[in-house]
Write a structure and sequence with these properties.
Number of strands: 0
Number of helices: 12
Distance between the termini: 18 Å
Radius of gyration: 19 Å
Helix content: over 70%
Largest sheet: none
Number of domains: 1
Length: about 280
């Protein structure tokens, strides 16, 4: 892999991890459109590079929400000590913990099935369209609650919805924002909860997959592309967070709905006309 290809995929990862348009789907579709099969043919490097990209997005969310994360960790500690969940930040911290559990369990149990049966371009196209339209429907619900009103029940529902994002094309941020909007969270709060929820999920995945990659031995010549990809994902991820939060304070999520539907239709047309294969 060249540093230029690593830069492109790092930017794609950073932007699409936080925008509700599916990072895993785009990381398959972009090489598919380029007829680029390097990652597919070099599984050990693919795993290592995937860890690097997710580490970049983790850095982005930790830096952007550093103040909130420190307060939530302190609230979690104080809740442990007092054995109560009373303050808004304590409820939010526990809601994030509860929301993390379903995805961890489902990811551990279904990882092999997901890798073997999901992630083909035609599947991604359909999921982009379906869950894009679902996001549009959810975003038309009333905005009744703020982030400091999130409780454990809402955290559980968002966590269960997040399980669906294991399928490339659904979008982790997209489905969690969709769930948040259906539950009555305002647009800004739904996005913030989604982004804060990314921290424990991604940290766990990076630690687990990083340990696996190191145990299996890092492939030769990965340092350069990994550094470029990680930095690109971190910078573009930070900009994506700031940009999305600025957008939804004034506008709806419709721009992402339209984008998802158009990309999905475009992919299906490329497949239907025989320009590209339905599989990758």
């Amino acid at each position: 892999m060249s540093e230029l290809e690593a830069l492109l995929l790092g930017i794609v990862q950073g932007l699409t991890e936080f925008l509700p348009i599916s990072s895993s789907g785009h990381l398959i579709l972009v090489p598919w459109l380029q007829h680029y099969h390097f990652l597919e043919n070099h599984e050990s490097f693919n795993k290592t590079f995937d860890v690097a990209l997710h580490a970049g997005t983790l850095v982005a969310v930790l830096v952007y929400f550093r103040t909130e994360i420190v307060r939530l960790l302190a609230a979690l500690v104080s809740s442990f000590k007092s054995r109560t969940v009373q303050e808004p930040e304590q409820r939010l911290a526990w809601a994030i913990v509860v929301a993390t559990i379903p995805a961890v369990i489902a990811g551990g149990i279904g990882q092999s099935f997901i890798e073997d049966h999901l992630g083909e371009p035609w599947q991604i196209a359909i999921l982009l369209i379906v869950f894009g339209l679902l996001l549009g429907l959810a975003d038309r619900q009333p905005e009744r609650e703020r982030l400091d009103e999130v409780d454990l029940r809402q955290g559980l529902y968002v966590g269960l919805a997040q399980v669906l994002a294991l399928a490339p094309g659904v979008s982790r941020s997209g489905i969690t924002i969709t769930a948040g909007r259906f539950l009555g969270l305002d647009r800004d709060s739904a996005a913030r909860f989604s982004f804060l929820l990314l921290a424990p999920v991604t940290a766990g995945a990076v630690a687990y997959k990083g340990y696996e990659a190191v145990s299996e031995g890092l492939p030769h010549g990965v340092v350069g592309p990994m550094i470029v990809g990680t930095v690109a994902a971190a910078v573009s991820g930070y900009l994506a967070i700031a940009g999305l939060l600025a957008l939804v304070r004034r506008h709806s999520y419709d721009v992402f709905v339209v984008y998802r539907v158009l990309v999905g239709i475009g992919v299906l047309l490329l497949i239907a006309t025989g320009a590209y294969s339905a599989t990758f």
